[in-house]
Tat (Twin-arginine translocation) pathway signal sequence
Amino acid sequence: MSDKLNTSRRRFLQGSVATVAGVAFGGSLLTKPVFANEFPSGRIEVLVPFSPGGGTDRSVRLVTPAWQTTLGMSDPFRLNHSPGAGTLIAQNALKDASHDGHTVLFTPAPHVAWLSVLQSDEFSLGQVAWLGSYFQDPNVLLVPSDSPYQTAQELIDDARETGRTLTASVSSPMSAAHAATVVLRERAGINIRIVPFDGGGEARNAVAGGHVDLCMAPYWSAINVLELTRALCIFADEDPSTGLWDAPPAKEELDFEMPNLYEPYGAMVSAQVRDDHPDTFERLSSTFMKALESDEFREAAEDQDIHFFAQAWGPDRMNQFIEEYIALLDEFRPAMEQDLEEM
């Protein structure tokens, strides 16, 4: 592996030890051990591995009030934003916190898969346990509203015929958006140059402003640029929403096969909570699922247009997704690492 690739990877994964320590010990993450019948004995910390205002943060704020109700808590969850290092900072904070169930991490599942592949010396799937997923965000192919392309196949055909290199914004190198874009590029046999940004919001603003040709983005997380973009297709069996992008399925638009691409957002605790405190883990898991069925969550989700994508997945389904996603990464990782050398 070249020095340049190592440098790019280090830049992507960099995060200071001091920051991790500050997240882990600066708040009330460390709580004394409790017995299951006393749980929760205090406020629950929610680690969010991204900055406030993004899709993960917004979705967490929808589900945690309902979960607070089903847990019977008087104090609201405390959100602790721990961005950086491809979510490794937040994962390290979870690892360093007391394993009594009072620290929960919310994250898109693809980032967990990526850490297990790229940072196997610092993170393993065996150190975490899923509670479940509360919504699954399908990818859409976005172009600026004034783009000359009216369909996804028209964009592909033009790139093939002219040999032109298209530009695509992604939230960061080696991210779920990067992976989705590379799958499209390799399957279509066209040239796409990856343009990384510092977060999904900036990447979506880039396509909305016409600074890049396209952006592979999670549907709900990108609705803030709805009026400034068009979705040429959705990488799912159908567009579950009405009145938003109304995107046609990729399988009906493209002359080549594309997998369904989506990002399940889920909650997890350390595996030690599950193994050492099974009653606490069961209480967390069951009340989380109950919250997703509550009127409180459903009304909040509908108000934010997330109800189209809200579906409860249990731990087994989340683990299955991780396994399938890692298989996808194995196929396209070399092409993604080549992108790093060109950034």
